Amino acid sequence: MQSSNCVEGSSSSLRKGAWSQHEDELLKDCVQRYGEGKWHLVPQRAGLKRCRKSCRLRWLNYLKPNIKKGDFSEDEVDLMIKLHNLLGNRWSLIAGRLPGRTSNNVKNYWNTYMRSKEHSSKKDKNKPKEEIEKVEKSHHEVIKPQPRTFTKPLLEVNKFHGSNDNSSKVTMNELCEGESSSRTSNWWEAFLLDDNEDNNHLLQTGFWDEQQLNMTTNSFDFFSEGQTWSDFLAQF
DNA sequence: AACGAGTGCAACCGCAGGGCG
DNA sequence: CCGCCCTGCGGTTGCACTCGT
Predict the structure, then answer these.
(1) CA A40 to CA A15: how far, in whole Å?
(2) Measured in angstroms, what separates residue A121's CA from nucleotide B6's C1'?
């Protein structure tokens, strides 16, 4: 799939490497004027000799407002570890739960963190190898959300109980796009938090297929009675 | 002061998946 | 249904900076 790479077109004319301040300004102006998205148009609009992927990455990881730079706080690290236990290397999802942090940010930090951890565990020669492996293994039993297509009304259970209109489809990925909608932004968190009849409704309407049901009830005991999301995370 | 090793982070690459004609 | 195009993600690379010798 060559078109998605920065090799597109006459690659020789495309700039690579570190961004200059001038390029940053051009990109900022462009995004402010035309908004985010349509990245294939951005290089042309901004007058940049950069591929669209490079533009997008620069904006998302560096130029976008509200991006937090600097060290991760203890709370952030704590949450990151818990989320990583839960989600695995889903950096974008993890970053979505850490305000102001980008997936690249999180990924880089994690790699660094893991490297230092690995370093220290190697130092810990008293621990038997098997024990270390056991611990590591248990930390990598990861819940991977399955991409799934389902009906909008299913999600809007508060408004549309019992609706059978399957005309408009919405995907899991859409739901994971945090900023698009407050209703759906924290769908999984909300779902897990709400031990109420709406969730029962989702179960009854087949929102979870058998495999997922098995996952939630057997290998992944989400909440005991009265347990909150914070309580749940605190288990890790 | 010089140099090599280690570290952090920005940027790149390849791929998967969704939308649309 | 199929193929093309676009977007976004995760893994990897490369470079600049720091630190120890």
Answers:
(1) 16
(2) 18
